[in-house]
Amino acid sequence: MTSVTYPTAATAATTAGSPSAKAAAISSDFETFLKMLTVQMRNQDPLNPIDSADYAVQLATFSGVEQQVRTNDLLKKLTENLGGAGLAQYGSWVGMEGRAALPAQFTGEPVTVLPSPTPSADSAQLVVRNASGREVQRLPISTDGAPVQWSGIGQDGAMLPTGRYSFVVESFLEGARIAEASAEIYAPITEVRSDASGIKLVFQGGGEVSAGNVTALRQPV
């Protein structure tokens, strides 16, 4: 009797997980599966025939994998289309100034920092850190959220080096620190990107945030 090997649930799953051209491959494999299933029926032992339910299970399993592959491909195409629509929507933001919690590129000119102390705080401080995360300055600020003009002049009266600086607001109540949050700045938007996590905006100086974290837009000043 001729020995016939046919696809099983395991081989079908392996085919479904293979990269590139898997949809075309599984469609071809499905036709091959039907031919091999026919050969198997013709060559089965008449005294010990295979239960018809086994055929149904094999057919349903392979068909289910095929449909899942097609569904995954459809979802991928929909995601790509939505991502492209997002890029087109946010593309108009390029060249504008966006407000977000990101580092500032200090070039010697003052940087406008937009702090948000905790409402219950009775005092607050603006902490300035360099690109390596080291604290380089600490300044008292008001608790009303008024913008702060950071001049870039250190405690010794000398201008700090050019580079990237981040700003953190520490809120205090009766001398105890009760909260810490990144302060926002305005910076020019230079690029819009799309990845698995969504739409990202790239700012002048290299800062990058999700589009949903941009809290305001304005024309360059």
UniProtKB/TrEMBL annotation:
Domain of life, source organism: Bacteria
Could you tell me which InterPro entries the record lists for this protein? FlgD, FlgD/Vpr_Ig-like
Q: From its record, what is one biological process in GO terms?
A: bacterial-type flagellum organization
Q: Sorted alphabetically, which keywords does the UniProt record give? A: Bacterial flagellum biogenesis, Cell projection, Cilium, Flagellum
Limits of the FlgD/Vpr Ig-like domain = 107-171
Record's family? Belongs to the FlgD family.
Q: What job does the chain carry out? A: Required for flagellar hook formation. May act as a scaffolding protein.
What is the name of this protein? Basal-body rod modification protein FlgD
